[in-house]
Specification:
6-stranded mixed beta sheet, single chain, 11 helices, 2 domains, globular, 300 residues
Length: 300
């Protein structure tokens, strides 16, 4: 990956970005890669030397690494910090770096630090549950010690005190501990086998020059286009519809003074957060499809 500095940030930021501390060792796949889209995993490997990222887009990642380093200094005698574990399943060497293991008399508690926005704390993220259960599988396989508890320790970068009282479900402090459901060992292992199968399909497609598995709507953070019926000049819609025909029918029933507002959908990850979108034929086809649809609408 090539790192640019188009906003002329201090060189120290560039130096840190160019000296990543992360490594999965000799593993085929890390826990986080196992959860990722196989298309993204394979495109990153293929185009690694062509991917360009500006250091300004890496600031929160850099800060997150710094937070991990600081919190390491607060460990107790029964804490194990930043330990990478390795295990093999179905011929795949899997690794995972666990932020914090707290050793109790009856087993191990796993904590994972996340430097996130408040939205992530207020909305369920199934990938957190999946990631921590992979860690639980690794701990029990490697250490032969039961895992008794999982939790996310969320450091909320956009937390504000004034929203504590006014927003329902808003975290009470800038650091939130979020309990995570612990699966049975059988559930964990089956889930990992399923993800190995998905990643194997991506690897086989890349090696045989076949079409890579397509990213799912969830993997692309896809927001579909919706159609809002609203009173002209109003801030909020009277109704929002998934189908244009339904919205047009509601518009007719609403009478004078109402308009139809098209709220364009997007694949948010692809357009803003995917480092390989420029190399992705699935995303290119989507952009072309949207362009053609817009041209058709304008012609009509």
């Amino acid at each position: 990956m090539k790192i640019t500095n188009k906003y002329n940030l201090p060189q120290t930021f560039v130096n840190v970005a160019n000296r990543p501390s992360y490594t999965k060792g000799k593993a085929h796949v890390s826990a986080t890669e196992l959860l990722n889209s196989p298309r993204i995993v394979q495109l990153k490997k293929k185009y690694d030397d062509q991917i360009v990222t500006d250091v300004s887009d890496m600031i929160w990642s850099i800060i997150g690494t710094a937070i991990h380093g600081v919190l390491e200094q607060g460990k107790d005698a029964n804490h194990i910090v930043e330990q990478r574990l390795h295990e093999v399943l179905d011929g795949w060497h899997i690794s995972g770096a666990i932020d914090l293991q707290i050793v109790h008399n009856d087993g191990i508690e796993i904590n994972d630090y996340k430097n996130v926005g408040v939205w992530s704390v207020m909305n369920e993220k199934i990938e957190w549950e999946q990631q921590l259960n992979i860690y639980a599988w690794l701990v029990e396989k490697v250490k032969k010690t039961p895992v008794i508890k999982l939790a996310i320790i969320a450091i909320i970068r956009d937390w504000t005190r004034r929203d504590v009282q006014s927003r329902q479900g808003y975290p009470q402090s800038q650091v939130a501990t979020i309990p995570v459901k612990l699966w049975s060992m059988e559930e964990r292992e089956q889930f990992i086998r399923d993800r190995i199968h998905v990643q194997s399909e991506g690897l086989f497609a890349m090696e045989t020059n076949e079409v890579l598995p397509l990213c799912t709507p969830a993997e692309m953070w896809e927001k579909p286009t919706t159609y809002a019926v609203k009173k002209e000049g109003a801030a909020r819609a009277k109704s929002v519809h998934a189908e244009k025909e339904e919205a047009e029918e509601m518009l007719q029933k609403s009478g004078k003074g109402y308009i139809l507002e098209i709220r364009e959908g997007d694949r948010t990850r692809c357009s803003n957060f995917c480092s390989v979108s420029n190399f992705c034929d699935q995303y290119k086809a989507y952009i072309e499809e949207r362009k053609n649809a817009k041209t058709t609408n304008e012609t009509i």
